[in-house]
Design a protein that fits this description.
By secondary structure, this protein is of the alpha+beta class. The longest helix has 22 residues, at 433-454. Bound molecules: 5-hydroxymethyl-3,4-dihydroxypiperidine (IFM). 5-hydroxymethyl-3,4-dihydroxypiperidine binds at residues 318, 326, 331-333, 472, 474, 624, 626, 670.
């Protein structure tokens, strides 16, 4: 194992200006819930939030959002009646460390109160990966004064999502020293029950109390403070929702769990063991580049804590469970950017995420039907129920009081093909035939059915077209024949026919095949139509092998990024929303994205030609955070390792260094997944083929070693590369 510092995300001073960014960075979680790194005692302007998977509630304009759940962190400490808070008194020393090995967040503060009472306080917290319903907080205080230390440990149901209230208080109380709190979301009526217990490990207790204040039940204890004698206090919480158990059982479950929870040491050990197993599968070792080493572990950690372990009806949002950005909704970010990490290192988690799409096929049918099509059209943004939840309006970037109409919910249709691509990718790498037969085949066939229905015949071109769409580059909307969309649709249809042939050839798939043929009405006429669409889909390639991103793109005013230097704004901010539609500058890779996903179908010559054309026109600096990792991978392929490294490190730093200035909204999950792909598929050049796997290493010069593991068809493989 590498030295400690490459596992520790650290800050050594408290900077109120960086409060919300740091809350994101210090998010902890366990696949069931995540909690932002807000301070136990609160701070003005903090965005304290806990998000529990699947707990969505309705909201105006944005339709639905993950409801910021009751807060389990509240812990206030009074030093001889003076309340500890970082916005008062004097911070004599401060340090915060997130240990990525175990997910334990530790804060060490030496604080002098306005009346000169001094104490060193160490706060530690973790959300157990060994038992996802249990959360732990420990506080060690060394007073430098005589007197008392009063500790108030509470729960708080008065949480909101930036002003939007989602919770209705239901009940609270105390039984046998443990406290419970019940609350329900206003519209979706999801109930939650928390139980809280406190434990004094070191210190003489003078009195203990229960404050039955509605919404914030609190247990208090007053300890005798003696100079330089450490006091240790623990707060144990358990959480259940009505998504886990029947409503009438959740309070009982929480209250039963809290008093029987293991000691801090036992829970800590179980959690550390669970994390050791995660890292044994997923860790990436980079020697010769401490920043990249820590950054990849940080990005992996943030994805691992957001990945549902025991629930396949939830997905990972574009901002994981770490912030209010994108309202907890999930996008193609999951299938194309995050999923590869799970497919290769934790296939059981990849399967959960794909099952979420499978369970949501009814929502995809509703969307297709509403638009007048057959088959499964997946929503661009999806939440709890699988229906389209992309807000039609978002606040204008220049004036947030004004709303701007956005179109992805209607016309960014490529996501259906992205999901089919991911299902096939999962099967190809894992060899999970059972899942393919039971679920994957249906996902691929049902989306193919949509693509065949959505294709429009053009008598003039003698081709099938997809008009009025948005490709990955969202700066250009209402375009016709976006190459990415058309080619991914074609690939979806091709894969569907391939899967049908595969099922036909397998004795053990006969029953499922018969059922699918009936259920999806896969008549020979329909399949013939699919073949025709595949053959005649509009996919122009110019003589020079340059691919036009969409029809008419080359006629737009040519704008390269270098011409706009110096610049600190996105293309839409420079040119306006309409103006950005009229130039060739793009927000994120589009043609290159396609060439990356379907790399084996295109020659090096084609990739090079398009790389050289599109790279100078792609806004990697201020465009989408999804861009840099893909640019890095293609740059690796082109042998341009310096550029590849620059783009890789830009992606890797997205949140740690807040390179886009919006990390306060939550982790850039797609960028985190893309960072792993840039290392594994870019620098290591891993390729899984029909016959096995190969690597084609192209390490940055200063990397002495790159090592990682992955699963291929059930076997764990190891890659260990040096210069
Ligand atoms: O899915 C992405 C999209 O590609 C670019 N805008 C942000 C979305 C969520 O990350």
């Amino acid at each position: 194992m590498n030295n400690d510092r490459n596992w520790l995300v650290r800050e050594n001073t408290f900077d109120p200006a960086d409060l919300n960014h740091k809350e994101t960075i210090f998010t902890i979680g366990n696949g069931y819930l995540c909690t932002r790194g807000a301070l136990e005692e609160t701070y003005p302007g903090n965005q304290r939030a806990t998000f529990i998977h699947g707990v969505f509630d309705a909201a105006p304009i944005i339709l639905t959002e993950l409801a910021n759940a009751p807060d389990w962190l509240p812990l206030t400490i009074h030093l001889n009646d003076e309340r500890f808070a970082l916005d008062r008194g004097t911070i004599e020393s401060f340090e915060r460390v997130l240990d990525l090995r175990t997910g334990v967040l530790t804060r060490r503060v030496r604080w002098r109160s306005p009346s000169d009472y001094v104490a060193t306080m160490i706060f530690e917290r973790f959300t157990s990966l060994a038992d996802e319903h249990t959360l732990f907080l420990r506080c060690r205080v060394t007073p430098e004064f005589d007197g008392t230390l009063e500790i108030r440990a509470g729960l708080d149901a008065r949480m909101d999502n930036r002003g939007m209230i989602h919770w209705r208080w239901m009940d609270q109380g105390e039984r046998d020293g443990a406290v419970y709190l019940r609350a329900a979301t206003l519209e979706s009526k999801i109930e939650t029950a928390y139980a809280l217990r406190i434990n004094v490990v070191e210190g003489a207790e003078i009195k203990r109390d229960f404050w039955d204040v509605e919404n914030s039940p609190t247990l208090t204890t007053t300890l005798r403070a003696v100079p330089n004698e450490e006091l240790i206090f623990e707060k144990y919480i358990s959480v259940f929702t009505s998504r886990d158990l029947p409503r009438d059982q959740i309070e009982f479950a929480a209250m039963q769990r809290a008093p029987t929870m293991p000691s801090w040491e036992q829970a800590h050990e179980a959690n550390a063991n669970a994390w050791a197993q995660e890292w044994a599968r997923s860790d990436v070792v980079i020697e010769g580049d401490d920043e990249a080493q820590l950054a990849i572990r940080f990005n992996l950690f943030q994805l691992l804590i957001a990945a549902p372990r025991h629930d396949d009806r939830v997905n990972i949002g574009a901002k994981t469970l770490s912030g209010f950005g994108y309202n907890g909704h999930c996008f193609w970010d999951t299938e194309i950017f995050m999923l590869p990490l799970f497919i290769y290192t934790a296939p059981h988690l990849a399967k959960n995420l794909l099952n979420y799409r499978f369970h949501n096929l009814p929502g995809a049918h509703r969307k297709a039907q509403t638009n007048g099509y057959e088959g499964a059209q997946f929503p661009w943004e999806s939440a709890g129920g699988g229906d389209e939840v992309t807000p039609p309006f978002v606040p204008h970037f220049a004036d947030p009081t004004k709303l701007v109409r956005i179109w992805p919910g209607e016309i960014e249709i490529h996501i259906s093909a992205d999901i089919a691509y991911a299902a096939y990718h999962y099967w190809r790498v894992t060899g999970d035939d059972e899942w393919l037969i039971e679920r994957g085949a249906e996902l691929i066939l049902d989306t193919a059915k949509f693509w065949a229905a959505r294709a429009e015949w053009s008598a003039e071109k003698q081709s099938y077209e997809y008009n009025n769409v948005i490709g990955p580059d969202e700066n250009h909307d209402h375009v016709n024949n976006n190459f990415y969309t058309n080619r991914m649709a074609q690939s979806n249809l091709q894969t569907a026919l391939q899967i049908l042939a595969l099922l036909e050839a397998r004795e053990d798939a006969r029953a499922q095949l018969t059922e699918l043929i009936q259920k999806l009405d896969l008549s020979s006429e329909r399949l013939e139509h699919w073949r025709e669409v595949i053959e005649k889909i509009y996919l122009p390639l110019t003589d020079t092998k340059l691919i036009e991103q969409f029809e008419g793109y080359f006629k737009l005013r040519d704008v390269k990024m270098v011409e706009l230097e110096p610049r600190d704004k996105s293309l839409q901010q420079v040119f306006g929303i309409e103006g950005a539609n009229e130039i060739q500058g793009i927000k994120q890779p589009d043609v290159l994205m396609l060439l990356y996903l379907l790399r084996d179908r295109y020659s090096d010559e084609i990739v090079r030609e398009n790389y050289e054309y599109y790279t100078p026109r792609t806004d990697v600096s201020f465009g989408s955070s999804l861009g840099p990792s893909i640019q890095a991978i293609i740059a690796c392929e082109m042998g341009d390792i310096e550029t590849a490294y620059d783009e890789f490190i830009r992606a890797a730093r997205a949140d740690l260094r807040d390179v886009r200035g919006n990390a306060n909204d939550g982790i850039h999950a797609a960028s985190a997944g893309g960072t792993w792909q840039a290392i594994v598929f870019g620098f290591a050049g891993l390729r899984v083929t029909e016959n096995g796997w190969t690597v084609h290493p192209r390490l940055p010069k200063h990397w002495r070693r790159l090592a990682f593991r992955f699963f291929h068809r059930g076997e764990q493989e190891q890659v260990d590369l040096s210069q």
